[in-house]
């Protein structure tokens, strides 16, 4: 058996009444059914992001959580053809902690399913020396995707897209963890 892959699931919205809660709960439930994964939800609200609270005290905790992960799934809505400011603030709060790690995306929104937000995030994560996955999961018309109990409606294809993305995330997480243990990335200059 290989090592467990530690995945940080990053919530992209801090909006009151956010649908991000439902999307995140579905992702976490799906990941819990997969072997050899440990999952940590990283919620910007917990770190004082987006709420106008002093966040200095939280910065160390955020850095520690990000540093402890092998890879990330970023859950993002689309706001005005981009991603939320709170998500940018969380991303910008760290640097080394992202480097060389894989990042997958679950997006949601109106007709586009958030893909424009994801394309912009790819540019941001390139600057942070991450590996963004080609595979992603998009949930268009997010308002009608969950039933009253929070279950994804007609989940079949979406579940299998998520599974495929997570398997590839694990591949990259194992590959990059192994590469870091052989040679520090900082020395590749
Ligand atoms: C400020 C704002 C801008 C939005 N812009 C878009 C958009 O450009 N494209 C889109 O598909 N949906 C857009 N939406 C719809 C959101 O994707 C949808 O409301 C989603 O539920 C927001 O995520 P949240 O509930 O987790 O905050 C926008 C929503 C908000 C609040």
TrEMBL record:
Record flagged with keyword Flavoprotein: yes
Q: Does the keyword Flavoprotein apply?
A: yes
Listed A to Z, the keywords are: Flavoprotein, FMN
User: Pfam families this protein is in?
Assistant: FMN_red (PF03358)
Quote the InterPro entries the UniProt record gives.
Flavoprotein-like_sf (IPR029039), FMN_Rdtase-like_dom (IPR005025), NAD(P)H-dep_reductase (IPR050712)
* GO terms of molecular function: FMN binding; oxidoreductase activity, acting on NAD(P)H, quinone or similar compound as acceptor
From what superkingdom does this record's organism come?
Answer: Bacteria
Q: Which residues form the NADPH-dependent FMN reductase-like domain?
A: 5-141
> Among the entry's GO cellular component annotations, what is one?
cytosol
Its protein name is NADPH-dependent oxidoreductase
């Amino acid at each position: 058996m290989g090592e467990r892959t530690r995945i940080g699931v990053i919530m992209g919205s801090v909006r009151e009444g956010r649908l991000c809660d439902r999307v995140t709960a579905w992702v976490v439930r799906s990941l819990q059914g997969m072997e050899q994964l440990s999952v940590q939800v990283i919620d910007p609200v917990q770190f004082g992001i987006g709420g106008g609270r002093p966040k200095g005290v939280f910065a160390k905790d955020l850095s520690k959580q990000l540093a402890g992960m092998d890879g990330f799934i970023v859950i993002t809505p689309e706001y005005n053809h981009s991603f939320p400011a709170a998500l940018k603030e969380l991303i910008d709060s760290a640097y080394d902690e992202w480097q060389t790690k894989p990042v997958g995306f679950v997006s949601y929104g109106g007709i586009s399913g958030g893909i424009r937000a994801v394309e912009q995030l790819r540019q941001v994560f390139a600057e942070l020396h991450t590996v963004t996955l080609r595979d992603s999961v998009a949930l268009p018309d997010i308002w009608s995707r969950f039933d009253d109990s929070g279950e994804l409606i007609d989940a079949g294809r979406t579940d299998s897209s998520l599974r495929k993305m997570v398997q590839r995330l694990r591949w990259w997480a194992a590959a990059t963890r192994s590469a870091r243990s052989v040679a520090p990335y900082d020395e590749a200059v």
